[in-house]
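hey so u asked for the seq, here:
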Amino acid sequence: MNLKKSNIPFILNASLASFGVYFCMYAFRKPFTVATFEGLEVFHIDYKILLIIAQVIGYVISKFIGIKIISELKANQRIFYLLGLIAIAEIALVLFAIVPKPYNIIFMFINGVPLGMIWGIVFSYLEGRKFTEILGVALSTSFIVSSGVVKSAGFFVMESLHFSEFWMPAITGLLFVGPLLFFALAFRTNSKTYTGRYCIAFRADSNDSKRPKKGSIAVFISNYYLGFILYLSDRFPRFS
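ran it, structure tokens below
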């Protein structure tokens, strides 16, 4: 990898934008885990555990759906899919607050489905470039800090803004809509500005439709199922 001074603006811009987008995504996924939902049970099962399970199931299903959707996604569609999926996740959180328990558990499942595809969309901006490894590291660092920050934001919403445990996830998500829009638009602008300059063969953003397509979903799964399972196991929220 030949890193030159002229490459630094692209690397910094793309790294910051990808970090920011995925960081903000966590605000629509993790805050509900800071709530205790103390004393709530459904069929003698802790209510919070059921919420976590529902979201995880939606998240896992989303990964399989994303194999087809993300692989066929064109460059000019990414921003709309990204914002659209986040909007679905936020609407699910609002409905989670409105619909009485335990029927609102289904909306935590719906919340997990769109969020599982955000990684694929974000990484599709970065893959196939000369500095994908560096950009991928920057994106991955969002895991380290985002969960704790958005949980703290959720706690602030409950303690300082006095929202209930049911409304807290939706309100916390709304707090991050502005930053998400900023980083998403910066991502798109950065991608257009540097199109072609830092892309390797078959990966110019303006030429996505001409990329060679090989194999099928079945072939993909048979070749990479082990790594896929390991990735998902690392992404599951912990019950503790």
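The beta strands are 41-42, 45-46. The mean pLDDT is 81.
lmk if thats what u needed
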